[in-house]
Amino acid sequence: MYIIIPYDQLSGSGHPRVNTNTTMDGPAGSGMCENNFFSAFCDGDLRRQELVRAWLSHLLCDSRRLVDTVLLCHHSTDELKVAKLKQSLQELGPITVNTKDEGCQTMLGGRFTEDLVVFCLSVEYVKRSEQFTKDVSTLMEGENELVYFMMEDNFKVLKKDLNSRGITKENVFFFEKADDPSIFKITCRRKKENSKLKSVYVSCCSDASSKMDRLNPMISSISTVKCAIPKKRRSYENMTKEDWDLMTNHLIAADEYLVLITNHYLDDDISLLECQLIKHRGKAMNVIDARSVTRKADPLWLRSLHKLPYDKDDDVMSVLISYILEDQQESDSIIISFHPSDTKQAEECRDIFRRGLSQCKVFLTSEFCDSKKIYQKIQKCQALVFCLSKAFMDDKKCQKEAELAHMLWKKLVPINLHECPVNLEQPDWLTKIIGHYRCATQKELEDIFSQNVLLNEDHLKLENWIQRNITVPLHTDISTQIEKCRGCGDPEHTVTDAFGKVEVFAEGGLERRAALYVRLSTKSDLKTVASLIIDHWKLEKPRLLISVTGEGSQIIKTPKKSRAITNALQNIVKEKGVWFTTDGATSEISEVIGRVVEKEDVNERPIVIGIASWEYLRMNDNLVTRHGFGRWPATYNTREALKARGEYHLNPFCSHFLLPHKCAVVNENGHCHVISTANFRSEFEEYIRQGKYNVQTSCCVEPIPSLLLVVGGDPLQSLSMVKRSLNAKRPVIVLRGTGGFADTLANAFTTGRSEEPRIMEILTHNERRYLSFVNLNNDNCGLGQTILDVLLNSISNDEQKLSLALGFNNCEKAMEHVFFDNRKTQRLEEPFMTQLMLKAMREGKIDFVRLLISECIDIQKFLLNNRDSLYAAKYLPDELRRQLGWNVVPSIDNIRRFVVRNVAMDVFVDYNYQTDIKEKNVDPYFHLMVWAVLMLNLHELSVFFWQYCEEPLPSALIASGIIRQLRKGCQVTNKILADNLLKQEKEFVKLSCDVLQGFFEDNPEDTERLLTRNRPRWRNLSCLEIAFRLKHRPFMAHEACKIPINKIWFGRISPENNSFRMIVSVFFLGLFPCVLKFMEEPSIGSTDENQNQPSCCVKICNKVVDRVVDFYTAPIMRFSHTMASYVLFLSLFSYTLLAGLSEHSHWQSIFLYSWVFTLMLDQIRELLNGIEDNKTFFGKKYARERPSVLQVYFKDKWNYFDVTILCFYVIAVALSFVPSYTAEEFARVFLAISLVAFFMRILKTFSAIEELGPKLWMITAMAKDLMYFVIILMVFVVSYAIAAYSVIYPDSKFDFDLIVNVLRLGYWNLYGELLLEDLEVEEPNCSFDPAVYESGSLPRCAVKHRRLIGLTMMGIYLLFANVMLLNILIAMFSDTYQRIQTQRNQKWNYERYALVKEFQRVPVVPMPLGALVYVYYINRWLYRKIKKCSAVADTKPVLTGKDLSENEMLTDLERECVYMFMKKKQEENTSNKPMTTADVSNIVSEQLGQRFGRLQSLTDTQIMFQLSQTNIK
After folding, report:
1. Of 1406, 1408, 1411, which Cα lies nearest the Cα of 1123?
2. How much is the average pLDDT of 457-475?
3. DSSP states of 1238-1306
4. Closest CA to 574 of 547, 544, 552, 549
5. Cα–Cα dist 831/826, whole Å
């Protein structure tokens, strides 16, 4: 709680000037009481001044907690005065006083720990030191009380700096003498007693003795209340200091206050001072009005309070006193008040309520013995039901019950007992209570319960609050209001009769929008209206307020103008907390704003509040409440409203409506005037702009940025709003070209004169600098830029400036207004900058992200602290949530596991060295790039983060792999997103290829190391391995990638060897090293150690051994030997199958079985290699995301083929051992099939051959095309075969032979086998006898005419099948061939690397001798197990200093290449940008300016000389 007490220290002839700011605002929204109240009170009386000082001391020291510690913030040059002040404070009581200058830091957790903070203001402290700003910012975060002291009387020097922080002259103490008694009279404080009793202080003046005698027993009867009532109020002249102290102690100890207003209360100075101090306490203040004569003009603070009447009988007053002072809870009960003559109808109503609200207890007033008991029940009930009749309205007892319920803020439900409600006229007392709405009948009440109107608790709570706080004029006619209110200060009001939710139907019902609305008075308390909007309508507190006045009649007709306004506002509506206020009527500007608002998400749309006059609204009867209950919803059709009376109808684009009714009031001078809707709107907007609704504990509230847009408009309302805005120093932007008042004012501003005196007042206004004009007739009007400039110039808060600049995506303005000064940048709070960075990233504003990173964001710290915020569930795209799983919690760990699982490798490894340097080496830009990729629509931002990654080449490959998996996971119906992701995927692949091309051109000798070096950040994988894992064929087809692949393929063997040498070496198993050429390694050693060199023979032997080892370990030789061995295997298999499986060849079969068994061992080796790959690509953290061993094994589709072959062979071997002829035949068939499959398996090796590999892929692709074609073809074949056979050979016997013959007829016709010899055969070579042709002796003869029909059908069938369908198949094959031919290079390089990688792991000795190698591997593994040698699965190579420096050098070259590439790309984009008309006009104007300048520089003599030379020519 912050309490700021303005006070001028007295000098010899000075007068105190005291002004108090309270949290109890008046009706006009002002939280200030009368400025000269204390000055008049203390004028000329020093004794009285001391008493005021004592009261202020109690007020300051008694808040929510006692002041035990005080902090004096000052500059070191004022240390002497501060020391005196500190000594003076310490003498007043047992308190601790600390001091703090600009060089000290006495904060705990970034906040002050002292109860009271005193700012000792001086020029050095405020203007020449940054500590004052830091201290004020720190104070606003804490819960300290504060006071400002001026060390010298030089407020004018500091006025600008202090006013910018909301500190005015009235808020400051002027310090003259440090030795004077301080205002902090802390010795008079008193701690509250630990008591459960509520302490109540009664404030009254000396003429209230008799009235207090009446109220005292009522208050004393409440057992939970301890009341402090002055027994005898002395006159002012006889008041002593002890009397003041006694009253002060009672006031401080009180929890609530009861103010008894009598005729002379407002004329008593002591009572008024007492009221001001009570208001400062911030606690409940209850007022009882006991005046016999009402004043014409009460103070503002009294008008805003609810006053209880004193003229009620004792029973009613006792209930009222108990209600306001005693804490009671309402029971679930309903009371029905009725006249005794209406008992039957009342009992029927009770039955209706009991059926509709079974959870509530319903009582009749006749069930209680006396009136006091009824009043007590009304006090505790939830609602009071009136059974209205003529007798009820004439009965005083019923009137008392209704008025008491109204004063106790109970829900009032009037029920009309008359069947014809027109005959029932309400008296004035009833209209004041329930308003003008029509009461419900019993039948309508049953309909209300059937519609569950009373079952929505939220609506009921809102209704109760509105009916208690929102009022409307009792009389709708203005003349009647003026006549009624002349006799008293307050006009007569009643509860509002229109509130709820309205559904506005536009375009004949095609568009429907819902909005909350309420009817109120133009005199309504602004604090109450703000509480309704923010607290009860649950609107977000505003951060920007834009008021729009006028109708803009020329906007829709000119699309250029509407587009200019739309483009300017679409950046604003994306900000949170944006409020638009309009006139609530349908107009062209409202339609433009509606279009802008509708583009945003439903949950993130800005608030559009329409403030429209109730009396001029068409069809306002549709909004009136029904039977005392709000409309949830009311319907409003704009097309029907056009036919009704009135000036305008509701705007369907507004989200909320305030519908004020004009009200007549009497001012303090006794004059009556009418508050218009424009006046109410201006005051409401100013109230919101000043942030007064948010004033709770501090008066230093930053105003909300706001502006007024004048679009057309009329010369009355718009002119009034412009003038009020200038008076309030609120920026005004007039849109010229929208017609009406806007064009009139713009023309007057251009000419500088106008015939209208009111317009001249605006042109000559002292604050006309806040007036701006934008011409919408220009092509580049710059409305958005003007709005941004105006708002930025009107805002002093740097955080708000940055938020606006972000909304407009204008980083130049952010740099100009905030980041130009390092001191401002340092003052920005880290949480705000973090949220700003997150918002800029989510909106994809790259320029702003770049600016924040360069100025104030530590990207490493940002990522570390905001990982969870980045992946907040509400910001994740729906497609990502669907692929992740709706039931999966979208945490950062689950999302990373999702990425690792889809990409099939751990991309979040970071560095794998020591744990103490791991966090330092995390690449934040890579993680942010992955986040941007996962957001699906932030591609440009992901590219921006990519270019700053530590290792951009593998980062681009991984980003493309993630996007590919996201694209594959998209639903089929979401084709737009899939196409978008495909473009992003190709973009990243192209970036990686372009960067590699640039690196290859600049550093060809380092390219191989770049592609093959192990990268610790990616689990020591190389770029080639990552590209192969993620199937980036375009990258692997690059010329730079072929070099390392060739080098791996040949090993130490030189590629210069011709084919003859290679073949000879393969057949002689490398036993003649002189046949092949090998690449020599550069000799490394010292020339001084010649004596230790081996002999020549030893050198030759070592060289021969090395060449033999290099020969056998080279992948190309392993491939050659394996293929030669496999050819031998096929030869043996073929010979065995052809020669037969007899006993003479039994040794061959055994040898063949053994060979196949070694091939099985080779498949087990591949399976084990898959396990090793799993450990390589996945760390321990993501071990659960590893695919199964079988998934890894069958990732190579050839392994399906291998398993099938081996299964067939095992079945054949098993059948061969069965002693049966049938089994032997089946075994031979299975062996034959196995032989074919073994032959087909050799096709896999063709992928390493550039000419044969693409052909293999063509065959595979054509086989897929053929499968789809066969489906179509079989439709023709089957249909023709059945139809033709049934015609030629009718009434055939159905059996298996029939099916074969039918399909034989249609299928073999495709290949030219027409079977004419069967169709055209005649007797005696065939027979018509069924017994003959069914026995198979002779074929069946065909009847001649049937034969002709069958041949005709065959001709048509062959025409379609052979000519059309087969040619379509050929065309499909041609298309497939062309498609694969264009990609042959990519596929060949990719498949070749797969083959190279596979043959790096193949044993050196081919099968079946390779089984010996497996025996060696098994023995080595057993040895390690016995010796308990722990083999680490994911051991990382130890990098030497040279390796680290080389890696660092290559990384720097890689990043430099990316930088140069992006710079070149940006220059190309800039040069290719088309020139606009604005650019052309700028160039022309610049050239003309140069020529005119050149002409002006010439003298007259030079001009004449030039002209004469021209004439001579």
Report:
1. 1406
2. 78
3. HHHHGGGGGGGSTTTHHHHHHHHHHHHHHHHHHHHHHHHHHHHHHHHHHHHS-SPPPSHHHHHHHHHHH
4. 544
5. 13
Cα dist. 679→568, 596, 661, 741 in Å?
Answer: 28, 28, 12, 18
Amino acid at 340: P
Give the other-Cβ count within 10 Å of 182's Cβ: 16
The per-residue pLDDT for 1058 is 67
SS3 416: strand
Distance CA 980, CA 936 (A): 9
Name the nearest CA neighbour of 513 among 619, 660, 614, 656.
Answer: 656
Closest CA to 1310 of 1274, 1285, 1257, 1348: 1274
CA-based end-to-end distance of the chain: 90
For residue 721, pLDDT beyond 80? yes
Q: Greatest CA span in the chain, whole angstroms?
A: 155
Cis peptide before 1408 (omega within 30 of 0): yes
* 844 three-class SS: coil
Sequence letter at residue 1106: D
Torsion angle (degrees, nearest 10) of CA 1297, 1299, 1304, 1309: 150
Residue entry with tokens 């004469």:
1508
562-590 core/surface letters (b: 16 or more CB in 10 A; e: else): bebbbebbbbbbbbeebbbbbbbbbbbbb
pLDDT at residue number 1175? 76
Instruction: Report the C-alpha dihedral over residues 486, 490, 491, 497, rounded to 10 degrees.
Output: 180
pLDDT beyond 50 at 913: no
Instruction: List beta partners, residue 707.
Output: 546
CB atoms within 10 A of CB 470: 21
CB atoms closer than 10 angstroms to residue 1141: 17
pLDDT, tens digit, for every residue of 1049-1107? 888 777 777 667 777 676 666 555 566 777 766 544 444 445 556 667 777 777 777 77
Who contacts 55 (Cβ-Cβ below 8 Å, separation ≥6)? 244, 248, 273, 277
Which tens digit of pLDDT belongs to each residue from 1331-1366?
Answer: 888 887 888 888 888 888 888 898 888 888 888 888
928 vs 946: CA distance, rounded Å: 9
Q: List the one residue out of 129, 128, 176 whose CA is nearest residue 152.
A: 176
Q: What would the two tokens of residue 1151 be?
A: 């040898």
Q: Render pLDDT for 997-1050 as a digit per residue (tens, 0 to 9).
A: 888 888 888 888 888 888 887 888 888 889 988 888 889 888 888 888 888 888
Q: Are 371 and 315 in contact (CB under 8 A)?
A: yes
Directed axis angle between helix 1039-1050 and helix 975-1002, to 10°? Answer: 70
Q: CB of 962 within 8 A of CB of 931?
A: no
The whole-number average pLDDT for the span 210-229 is: 77
Going along 662-778, which residue ranges are E strands?
663-666, 672-675, 706-711, 732-736, 771-775
SS3 959: helix
Using the predicted structure, report yes or no on whether residue 1430 has a pLDDT greater than 60: no
Within 10 angstroms of residue 1428's Cβ, the number of other Cβ atoms is: 6
- DSSP secondary structure letters along 1359-1371: IIIIIIIHHHHHH
| CB neighbourhood size of 189 (10 A) | 19
392, 394, 396: which is closest to 341 by C-alpha?
Answer: 392
Question: Is pLDDT larger for residue 11 or for residue 712?
Answer: 712
- CA atoms of 959 and 923, how far apart (whole Å): 14
Q: Where are the alpha helices (DSSP H) in 973-1058?
A: 975-1002, 1004-1012, 1023-1029, 1033-1036, 1039-1050
C-beta separation of 895 from 871 below 8 A: yes
Nearest by Cα to 501 from 649, 609, 631: 631
Q: 869 with 844: CB under 8 angstroms?
A: no
